[in-house]
Write a structure and sequence with these properties.
Layout (H helix, E strand, L loop, with lengths): L5 H6 L6 E4 L2 H5 L5 E7 L18 E11 L6 E6 L4 E7 L1 E14 L12 E10 L3 E4 L5 E2 L4 E5 L4 E5 L8 E4 L5 E4 L5 E5 L7 E5 L11 E6 L4 E7 L4 E6 L6 E7 L5 E2 L3 E3 L4 E9 L6 E9 L2 E10 L4 E7 L9 E7 L2 E6 L11 E4 L5 E5 L1 E2 L1 E2 L2 E2 L7 E2 L1 E6 L6 E6 L12 E5 L9 E3 L18
Parallel strand pairs: 2-8, 30-33
Antiparallel strand pairs: 1-8, 2-5, 3-4, 3-6, 6-7, 7-9, 10-11, 11-12, 13-14, 14-15, 15-16, 17-18, 18-19, 19-20, 19-21, 22-23, 23-24, 24-25, 26-27, 27-28, 28-29, 31-32, 34-35, 35-36, 36-37
The structure holds calcium ion (2 copies).
Length: 453
């Protein structure tokens, strides 16, 4: 009998277990300006630790990562191995300390935990810390890091792989999938071609190691051709956009039933947004970021838009007219240290960075990568920073940036050059990895993808 375990993931309410002044720190004389933070951990299924109710059956925890960032402090990372019941650590006092607890695990029993592609849970909490205080934080845990799941629209395939080296891959056939994201409990949510006029958004527990879906939990008709999805896992909200111009975009609540249930979508006012190529949610505050175009007089121009889905208004934007690095924007992802956007150059106008970084106020912070070319000729390359036409970020909650880099430029055997790319959030060339790792000789492509073109 299948246990109703997914609800328990959400059952743990955010609880501040201690928020009080404590003067023992100031007595030491050495920890002035710091606060002591305690985060309870879970040891194992069945443990008596505080968060017992959160851990579903069928997994084995391997460890915990805690990250903290905030204004005026260096970001902190702390790793704790399995077995610990609690972690205590000092954090510089101040406002808006952002804490992430990530619980790493592997699946031991797919019958008990069927979300085949989930590799961690994440919880987030923001706290103001007074110097000398002792603060306890527990967090709502939702799906975090995943296998690398990529949509291969033209091959009517969705792939799942364990690493960018693309070992241990599994596939399943999906008719013209355009985007994929993950619900709070770990359910895969995929947009795919439906009938001639509308697409379907369907959900499944995952792509099994043997390939194919474990189970299709449900689907609904989107009522439009879906170009992009974004999920706020912390708040259980699905956003999706049509490929129309002007674009329409929608919001639907994800109910944490078992299996999940998605409520009827409602249309959001688009304001000055003209088209949506890609969307992402800032998990910290629920704001939506949109890469696409906005209206500019009688025209549409490439723009990154920040949208407030509570007030249902465009809050801010940065466009081609005010940021000279913007060419054509294709997708966006929000990380702790900023907003990253894919920027597509072309051979006639090649001088644009491939990935742009902005802060949350949409101030440009720097770019990385360039169109791979030799003069006016496209040049297949796996070297660090060499991009074709980057289309989509994937593995949103994994650390670093994963990119689908797609071309339509064909070799002598009608294969086109496509690749998967990894680069860290500091754009370090030494972190670069690509699949395939080499291009072979002309006429012999090694990638199995066709992606979007
Ligand atoms: Ca290809
Ligand atoms: Ca391609």
């Amino acid at each position: 009998m299948k246990k109703n375990h997914s609800k328990s993931i959400f059952a743990l309410a955010i609880a501040v277990i201690g928020l009080f002044s404590c003067d023992f720190l100031s007595q030491t004389g050495s920890m002035g300006g710091m606060a002591l933070v305690r985060i309870p951990l879970v040891e194992d299924e069945g443990s008596r630790a505080i968060s017992k109710s959160f851990i579903p059956a069928g997994i084995s925890i391997t460890g915990f990562t805690i990250n903290v960032f905030g204004p005026g402090m260096e970001p902190m990372t702390k790793y704790v191995s399995r077995g610990a019941k609690v972690v205590d650590f000092y954090v510089p006092a101040g406002r808006d300390r952002h804490f992430t607890l990530e619980v790493h695990f592997y699946i031991t029993d797919y019958n008990l935990f069927p979300y085949a592609n989930i590799r961690s849970f994440k919880g987030r909490e923001i706290a103001d810390l007074k110097a000398g205080s002792f603060v306890g934080l527990t967090m709502d845990m939702v799906a975090g890091a995943t296998d690398l799941i990529v949509v291969d629209n033209q091959n009517t395939t969705v792939w799942a792989g364990e690493s960018i080296l693309w070992s241990d891959t599994a596939t399943t056939e999906v008719s013209f999938s355009t985007d994929v994201d993950i619900a709070p409990d770990g359910t895969l949510i995929i947009a795919k071609a439906g009938d001639m006029t509308a697409d379907q958004i369907f959900y499944t527990t995952g792509i099994s190691d043997a390939g194919g879906f474990d189970a299709v939990a449900g689907y609904f008709d989107a009522g439009c051709r879906v170009r992009s999805l974004a999920i706020d896992r912390q708040r259980g909200i699905l956003y999706f956009s049509s490929d129309d111009n002007p674009a329409q975009f929608y919001r639907a609540l994800i109910l944490s039933e078992d299996p999940v249930e998605i409520q009827k979508p409602s249309l959001l006012p688009a304001g000055s947004i003209a088209s949506v190529e890609g969307m992402a949610v800032d998990t910290w505050d629920g704001k939506l970021y949109i890469a696409g175009t906005r209206t500019f007089g009688a025209f549409s121009i490439a723009a990154l838009v920040k949208y407030d889905p509570v007030l249902e208004v465009v809050e801010d934007f940065e466009s081609k007219t005010t940021c000279q690095q913007i060419k054509n924007l294709r997708d966006v992802i929000v990380k702790d240290n900023g907003v990253f956007v894919l920027n597509v150059a072309d051979l006639a106008d090649p001088q644009f960075p491939s990935i742009l970084k902005f802060n949350r106020n949409l101030d440009y912070q720097g770019g990385y990568g360039a169109l791979s070319r030799d003069g006016t000729t496209f040049k297949p390359s796996m070297l660090a920073g060499a991009f074709y036409f980057p289309k989509r970020f994937f593995a949103h909650e994994n650390s670093g940036l994963y990119v689908i880099d797609d071309s339509a430029i064909q070799d002598d055997f009608d294969h086109d050059w496509d690749k998967l790319v990894y680069v860290n959030e500091n754009f370090s060339s030494s972190s670069w990895q690509a699949f395939p790792s080499s291009i072979g000789i002309r006429g012999e492509t090694l990638d199995p993808f066709e992606f979007f073109e």
